[in-house]
Structure formats: C-alpha cells, structure tokens
C-alpha cells in the first residue's frame, strides 16, 4: 500500500528483548507490515543490565551472546518512520528499563513536534498469565500520548483469529516454562503490523 505520491509507508519496530521472545514478535510484526507494502526497520535498544545479572540467567546470557542484530535503535529511526511499534517484556507492569531509557532520549524530537505525526502501537510478553501484559502495553502507549502520536490498538476486528488471542491492546505472549511464541501469538503480531502499515499509509501527507 502506498500514498498517492507513490511512497510506501515506513514502519519502525523498536523493542527490547531479554531472551528472544519479544524479538520474535517484533519480526512477525515487521513481516505483517512488509506484506502490506511497508518499508521496515527492526531495531533493538541497547542492553543496559549489569553483566552479573545477565550471567545469572542462562537464556538471557544466550540471547545477549548470540544477538543477531547489528544495528541498535536510534532517534533517526523515529524521524524516518510513519508508524512505530514498541515492544518490551513486562517488568512489574511496566516496560523494561532498557526501552524506557531509549524513549527518555526523545525529548528533543518531542519538543520540535517531530513525533506528533506518528501512528504507534505496542506489544509485549510475560512469563505468567497475569504478569502485566495490558499494563505494560499501556505504559508504552503513555509515551505515544505525550508525543502527540496517534495510538493504534490491535483490536479484535482486524482478523477473526484475534478473538482467541484474548488481547485487543496489542500482540502478547505468555511464555510459560520459557516457551517461544506460538503460531497464534506470531499471527497476532503479523496482523498488528499489517494494520499499522495500512493506517500509516492513510496518514502520509
């Protein structure tokens, strides 16, 4: 999908992932956006946790040591984008500090009004069913509100399969026993990416 001038919508997926689950959702979301004709950038934020904390968790250490991403998120990615997806694991009902630290650097862009034209959406993962999935998505959306961006929920109407996912706020995954996202969670993320691209295309001026 393109705007009347022929430019494809630009979607940035900015996320923090400790063990790879949020990264898998990020990639699925970007896949959905590309299927809708968008250009995409998938960018993790920097790891900021002390090495001793990482070393104490086998899966966290494995992800940090074998992280497949070469390029970290930057403010340039936000200026480039028409649509933005934010992703983070839950941290006591909030986004992870690593993502928050990146978002806290956006004050200059906010002051210039450069983020007000974005359409944004959020996604998450937790290890328990009541681990703060919706609260974490809402915490990320709070940043979008302050930017003046338009907030796009996943909703249920975009695809019949979403009725079984149980989360209209955004794609989410409950990783019991460290399980990777299943097909249903990945499909919800793809639908979210497709919808984000479609909405962003309509807002391009």
Automatic annotation (TrEMBL):
Coiled coil: none annotated. Residues 11-178 form the Flavodoxin-like domain. GO terms for molecular function: NAD(P)H dehydrogenase (quinone) activity. Its EC number is 1.6.5.2. Keywords: Oxidoreductase. PROSITE patterns: FLAVODOXIN_LIKE (PS50902). It comes from the Bacteria. NCBIfam families: flav_wrbA (TIGR01755), PRK03767.1 (NF002999). Belongs to the WrbA family. This is NAD(P)H:quinone oxidoreductase.
């Amino acid at each position: 999908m393109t705007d009347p001038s022929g430019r494809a919508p630009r979607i940035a997926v900015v996320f923090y992932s400790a063990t790879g689950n949020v990264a898998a959702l990020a990639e699925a979301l970007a896949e959905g956006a590309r299927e809708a004709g968008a250009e995409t950038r998938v960018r993790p934020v920097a790891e900021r946790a002390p090495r001793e904390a990482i070393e104490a968790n086998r899966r966290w250490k494995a992800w940090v040591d074998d992280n497949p991403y070469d390029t970290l998120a930057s403010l340039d990615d936000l200026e480039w984008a028409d649509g933005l997806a934010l992703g983070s694991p839950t941290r006591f009902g909030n986004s992870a500090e690593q993502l928050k630290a990146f978002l806290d650097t956006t004050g200059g862009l906010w002051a210039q009004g450069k983020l007000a034209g974005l359409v944004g959406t959020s996604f998450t993962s937790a290890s328990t069913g009541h681990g703060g999935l919706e609260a974490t998505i809402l915490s990320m959306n709070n940043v979008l509100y302050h930017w003046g961006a338009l907030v796009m929920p996943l909703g249920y109407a975009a695809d019949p399969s979403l009725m079984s996912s149980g989360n209209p706020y955004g794609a989410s995954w409950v990783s019991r026993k460290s399980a990777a996202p299943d097909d249903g969670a990945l499909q919800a993320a793809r639908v979210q990416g497709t919808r984000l691209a479609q909405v962003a295309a309509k807002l391009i001026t």
